[in-house]
Amino acid sequence: MADLLDDPTTMTFTVAHAASAGDQDPPEHPRPLDESTRARALLAAQPVVEGHAEPPRVLDPDDLAPVRAPEAGAQLWSLRVGADEGVLCTLRRIDAVRALVAAFPEELRLAHTTSEMAHALACGRVAALLGPVSWEAVGGSVAALRAYHALGARAVGLTRFDRFAREAVREMNRLGLTVDLAGADPDTVRQTLAVGRAPVLLTRAEPDGMPDDVLRLLGEREGVCMVPVTPDVSATADALDRLRTLAGPGATGISHATDPATGYAPLFAELLRRAWPARDLVALAHGNATRVLRETEFHARTTRLKAA
After folding, report:
1. CA distance 199 to 202
2. Across 267-281, average pLDDT
3. pTM of this structure
4. If DSSP codes are grouped into helix, strand and coil, which group holds residue 27?
5. CA dist., res. 61 & res. 19, Å (int)
6. How far, CA to CA in Å, does 35 sit from each of 6, 32, 270, 278, 294?
7. How confident is the model at residue 109 (pLDDT cuts 50, 70, 90)?
């Protein structure tokens, strides 16, 4: 499929010509698809993993459409709370996401693993993953990390690096909790990447605010920077171009659409005009984020096997 999408002369609709034996006119060549059509075709086959989704305040069917873009295939549902809210508010958010999934079983399916994500997509559902949890809601306790993992959380945000953070990163790697460095300062990103053994996510990131060396390091450590998609398609494409140049195509991802109704097709069409190959667009849509989640799971399994 990637070859077809990369070559606009081959990705065309086939037209059946019923020509008589005496017809000497040469067949008409179908026109190549434009970038917008190609982008919609790619996203229909390769839906987006969104790094940041907020639970709606009211469980109403009309709330679901604005919550996500139509091209979304999986979402990380934010469990972030205010610095003064803590564990109880985090538990309420977990309960809210579970209630949302239960209220819309034809739309959503809770997923704890990448295998469950794939199964949800195969069933025509959007996979809902719990996380990230706020760093403040961890309370400096590895026991809290274990409890959140047992409740189904699969990512925890880390915004500062200290002695406990070093211990927490190792425990998160052991459990299979993805480290989310969204909002972390460059030094925290550097120190976390030096300690961690599993790749990281930045579920809400602005690459323009990150130094070149941090983006290069992120790419070297196979992390993924998930970029919000704004109505300014050109500016978003510029940010993704810089990220792809410095960190590599394996470090790109999508956070969320600030205008979900518009979706992702305009951005992907712009990237096609900028000569992004289809394999890089598939990686941007879901391949890179899924790889981080899958490798985090794999690292946790191998760690437990070695300890057994």
Report:
1. 10
2. 98
3. 0.88
4. coil
5. 51
6. 11, 9, 8, 12, 31
7. very high
β-partners of residue 109 are 127
With tokens 């990281």, the residue in question is 200
DSSP, residue by residue, 277-292:
-HHHHHIIIIIHHHHH
224-229/252-257 β-pairing: parallel
Answer whether residue 228 shows pLDDT above 90: yes
Helix/strand/coil for 121: helix
CA distance 121 to 40: 17
CA distance 48 to 73: 5
Task: Return the exposure string of 267-304: e unless at least 16 CB atoms fall within 10 Å of the residue's CB, then b.
Answer: bbbbbbeeebebebbbbbbbbbbbbbbebbbebbeebe
Tell me, what's the pLDDT at 174?
96
47/146 Cα distance (integer angstroms): 31
Confidence band for 15, pLDDT divided at 50, 70 and 90 = very low
pLDDT tens-place string over residues 41-69 = 999 999 999 999 998 777 676 667 667 89
pLDDT value at 268 more than 70:
yes
71 burial type by CB count under 10 A (0-12 exposed, 13-18 middle, 19+ buried): buried
Residue entry with tokens 């993704």: 240
Quick one: tokens of 61? 């069917």
Under 8 Å between Cβ of 180 and 148: no
Could you list the beta-strand ranges (E) of 6-71. Answer: 48-53
CB burial of residue 232 (10 Å; 0-12, 13-18, 19+): exposed
